[in-house]
Amino acid sequence: MRRLLVVLSLACVLLSILGSSAVARPGWKRDLDRIMRNKPMGLHVRDEGKTLYSWSAKSKRVPASNQKLLLSMALLDRLEPDTRLATSALGRRVRSGTLRGNLFVIGRGDPTLTSGGSFAGSLPIKPTYLGRLAKKIKASGVRRIAGRVVGAKTHFAHDWWASGWKSSFPSSQVALPAALNLDGNLRRGRHIGNPEFRVAETLTQRLKSIGVRVGGRPKSGAGPPDYARKLVAKVRSPRLAPMMRFMNRKSSNFFAEVLGKLLAVQRSGPPGTIAKGARGIEAWAARYNVRVAAHDASGLSSSNRVSPRGLTRLLGVAQKRPWGKRLRSTLPTGGEGTLENRLHGVRVRAKTGTLDGVSTLSGWVRLRRADSWAEFSIMSRGMSKARAVQIEDRIVRLLRKRARF
Prior knowledge:
Layout: H1 2-24, H2 27-36, E1 41-47, E2 50-55, H3 67-76, E3 86-91, E4 94-95, E5 98-99, E6 103-106, H4 118-122, H5 130-139, E7 144-145, E8 149-152, H6 169-172, E9 186-187, E10 190-191, H7 195-209, E11 213-214, E12 219-221, E13 230-236, H8 240-250, H9 253-268, H10 274-286, H11 308-319, H12 324-329, E14 348-355, E15 358-367, E16 372-381, H13 385-402
Parallel strand pairs: 5-7, 6-8, 7-11, 8-12
Antiparallel strand pairs: 1-2, 1-16, 3-6, 3-13, 4-5, 9-10, 14-15, 15-16
């Protein structure tokens, strides 16, 4: 009898503990539980290095364009936000106004290089004008180029594919990511595979229009020989952070794959490739004990994988870096960019992601009750985009108004 009473007493204590625990669970978490229940979705929220909320957050999921957020962090950990990329004209020494042999144009991955027109007008940042390079060439003393203008196929490989891409993606979703680009490598509405030739052709026209004679027809090809590597002129891209801002706010696949190849070169030297850029993302994440499966930089690959928990951990790392605030500023807030019709008036900075049946939203939300920026990641698969967006926005609004430790 005494033993039975002891057992009953312990049972009562246990029930009391469980009951008080259930009562103590904050209402905002119980509301999130109801939102998340029976959804093919993972959610993780962190603040000041501690987990605020977690639901199916360890499972690896397809990040879609949240991959651009991973790329941004990996690249900013190697290059300063104010880094600018040079496009250079090289050749032999100029004598009496004549450059003997060919003039070589070398790119280092500037995705904004333009001849002007609609592409330049579509950018919210001042691009790099090829006409300015022509003027600088003339200002260096060149009045005649005996040979040709050559667009060099150097620094980046011409690969244009990644595991997990649909066969239509190079024609419909992302232009060729080259080291020497022009007008987004788009011409008459179609992606082109010869941007180096277009640069040479357009620069030749610009030079002739300002009185510089060019002896031969433009072409693309290898870089200059050792005896023709004197710098004649160069132009520089906008700073890296504004280019990332355009990439993240408009979710530009072209900018992402170009900058992914830049990451590849920074990590392991030329030539930059899509696969090497993806390995750079994996390696950076692994430094912080987060396993990422990366196959591209844009997030077009359905084979990419990262967990919501892992992504928020990396966002927490970024938050502590000197470039953390600059990174956050590159992401759209409510009513802006890819959040143009979403989350108006909400203090959020987040990257969207969309593939067939996949929707993601990750970044930072300002917690009103904690007065801090919390990292969050929401990933789903198997829902309509409209339904996923509705749930994502509901979660973010709830976190903004009510979340706290």
